[in-house]
Amino acid sequence: MLVASVLQTSTGFGFSLMATPFLLLLFEPKEAVQINLLLSLVISVALITKIKKDIDKGILKRFVVGSAVGLPIGITVFLTADISMLKLGIGIIILLLTVLLILKLLMDQTKARDYAVGGLSGILTTSIGMPGPPLLLYFSGTDTQKEKLRGTTLAFYLFIYSMSLLVQILFAGTTDTIWISSGYALPLVFLGLFLGQILFKRINQQLFRIFTYVILLFTGVYMLLEGLSSIAASH
């Protein structure tokens, strides 16, 4: 939890990626997803005043509109689809796109792409609790400055995590374990917020980009292995 919150605070990404694999060792999938959503929401609320000046409000609005379409699709996937196959497919796509980014494939930022990325993020949030990969791939591909990337992403998380948590509770239910366990984790999250702010000031743009690629590669490999192991276990 501590490492995950440091990563999220310093880069705008990574809490779900670091926390979810370990949460799944201790909790049922529904509980792991909701604890992840709750604690990520706390980080976004705590940082919102510090990142206000870095937010690109136009992109943020389009992400929000796009995600509103993606959220109901995501919860439908969570309740009905084979999550193992979904993770496997997403893992492969993330790895392929990350390799293209490392090879310097860049794209232009457009309004249509903003809406599409918001939609994908919405689907991934309510289905597997990970909104970050589409945003991270998109911002890396458009070569966005680290301040704008972190600010816009964390502001978007404030909306997406609130809505996802609400959708999860309404359609999948919740438990005392989720709220009590999240409460136990809060001191570590707040310590991570403090350390992450210090780290952010010391990272230059080049190092930030390397961090981004490492997070993406780790996400892709994790989801690939997670999907494969779940499929193997079911057979």
TrEMBL record:
GO CC annotations, alphabetized: plasma membrane
Membrane-spanning parts: 7-27, 33-51, 63-81, 87-106, 154-172, 178-200, 207-225
Please name the InterPro entries in this protein's record.
TM_pro_TauE-like, TSUP
Q: What is its main location?
A: membrane
Q: Which UniProt keywords apply?
A: Cell membrane, Membrane, Transmembrane, Transmembrane helix, Transport
What does the record say about its membrane topology?
Multi-pass membrane protein
Q: Where in the cell is it found?
A: Cell membrane
What does the similarity note say?
A: Belongs to the 4-toluene sulfonate uptake permease (TSUP) (TC 2.A.102) family.
Report what the protein is called. Probable membrane transporter protein
Name the species this protein comes from.
Brevibacillus borstelensis AK1
